[in-house]
Amino acid sequence: MAEVKVLIQGYARGEEDSESASSTTTLIKESGLNIIVDPGMNRELLLESLKKENLSQKDINYVILTHYHLDHSLLAGIFENARVMDNEDIYSFDGKIKRHDRKVPGTDIKIIKTPGHDLFHCSVLVKTKEFGQVAIVSDVFWWSDEEEQKTDNESLMNHEDPYVKNKEELMKSRKKVLEIADYIIPGHGKMFKVKR
What we know:
The protein has a single domain, classed as Metallo-beta-lactamase, Chain A (4-Layer Sandwich). The protein has helices at about 45-50, 70-75, 155-160, 165-180; strands spanning about 5-10, 10-15, 20, 25-30, 35, 60-65, 85, 90, 95-100, 110-115, 120-130, 130-140, 185, 190-195. The strands form three sheets. It has a seven-stranded mixed beta sheet. It has a five-stranded mixed beta sheet with strand order 10-11-12-13-14, covered by helices on one side. By secondary structure, the protein is of the alpha+beta class.
């Protein structure tokens, strides 16, 4: 079974004349592979977090991008030995692109389409001993630092997303992940247990 660890808890906050944001960055270890989901855009914090895990950029085998907003994807290129995955393809730094079968090769880690926040959004499903089925859902659910993170199902379904591209699709994606996950890792905010 896989191990899942949140390396960086995502944040989004307004500052005097700018915004400060970076996505939640998650490390998955399975079958001898090190996989990063959404490397974010805070390079210093990411490198410090990897060092605490005794990992370097060269130790990462795959980077999964849940979507292409830069607060989630900006640092994908720093992992020179990794292949980069999105909702449909695997990209290599030699210019090759190939389709995947909704799994990280050599693992039981699944990639499912969860559109709404972004039209090409995906989520990552990981079976773990510690947490059961973990869904790394990125911006299917997310909160700014100023918001209270309410995790009852009604609040989750009705939480406003000011950047939503398709609200109807987002609602379907939210319903889907709430039905299959034991724990959810959001794009910005704390990991939480699904209440049933």
